[in-house]
């Protein structure tokens, strides 16, 4: 979408993605090698009683699901920021995640383009909020 086509309050919903134990462990091996993501036995003794996904993985999946909706399309120039990042609940193996993206701010720039800020909110299969962040991108007109 072009910048001029966005309106505050628009809401988009993504498809769902199921996160396996293997997905969690493979991501953690590369990007967040902490016991709660890699060591099943130690994780069972921890606060959550199980392996959990890295918050970074949850954030990346949320971004991927949003981008796959295709709203930005070819009009996106670049990301400009991510604010108020919240890891609200742990994500466990076999959780199925989906995202809503609500346009919460529009900031016009020169030449008719502008910055679009969306509130990404990620839910599990029980409709429990697990992640939330404000994502801003420069969009052409």
Automatic annotation (TrEMBL):
Organism of derivation: Paenibacillus xylanilyticus
Residue ranges occupied by any MaoC-like domain in the UniProt entry: 7-119
Pfam families: MaoC_dehydratas
Record's protein name: MaoC family dehydratase
Phylogenetic placement of the source organism: Bacteria, Bacillati, Bacillota, Bacilli, Bacillales
Top-level taxon of the source organism: Bacteria
InterPro entries: HotDog_dom_sf, MaoC-like_dom, MCH/BMMD
């Amino acid at each position: 979408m072009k910048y001029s086509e966005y309106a505050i309050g628009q809401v988009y919903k993504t498809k769902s993605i199921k996160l396996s134990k293997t997905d969690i462990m493979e991501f953690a091996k590369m990007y967040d090698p902490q016991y709660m993501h890699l060591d099943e036995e130690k994780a069972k003794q921890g606060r959550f009683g199980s392996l959990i996904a890295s918050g970074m993985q949850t954030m990346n999946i949320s971004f991927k699901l949003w981008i796959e909706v295709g709203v930005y399309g070819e009009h996106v120039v670049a990301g400009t920021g991510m604010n108020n990042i919240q890891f609200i609940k742990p994500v466990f193996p076999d959780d199925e995640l989906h995202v809503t993206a609500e346009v919460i701010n529009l900031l016009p720039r020169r030449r008719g383009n502008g910055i679009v800020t969306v509130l990404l909110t990620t839910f599990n299969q029980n409709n429990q909020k697990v992640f939330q962040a404000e994502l801003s991108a420069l969009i052409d007109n």
